[in-house]
Amino acid sequence: MPPFPRLLLPLVxxxxxxxxxxxxxxxxxxxxxxxxxxxQVVGVRGQSQSLDKNRGLGTEVDGVVTDLEExxxxxxxxxxxxxxxxxxSRDASDVDVYDADVDQGRRLLxxxxxxxxxxxxxxxxxxxxxxxxxxxxxETLADRPALARRVDALALIGSP
Length: 160
Hints:
By secondary structure, this protein is of the alpha/beta class.
């Protein structure tokens, strides 16, 4: 059984979205430009999760991304770049500290996605967030509809 069985259906849907589109490659994805991946995944970890473990993604996001990578590889897609949003994510009971970390995460996620769209316009974008990271992803894309339209798949896990 997959490590995150409740996420299996959304994960399968994500794979179908990413590989079921008309494009030039045999795998259903556009050919990547030089230096660009076919799929760009941006992960946003939860509150107090370490940047030093799980590729900086946090346990839950890393699990989803690993499953996604495996499923895309089965479809012949192996040109996948995974990046973590490197925001502060302190263990804070103070709402002002929490909100400051969310605000920083929103700015950094918007900056990363904007750079991906600008530098690799053919890459398919996937955003995965857990808890505080899900809040960051949701708010960032809700506030930037033009950027949200460029995101091909969004997985929000335990959004507050």
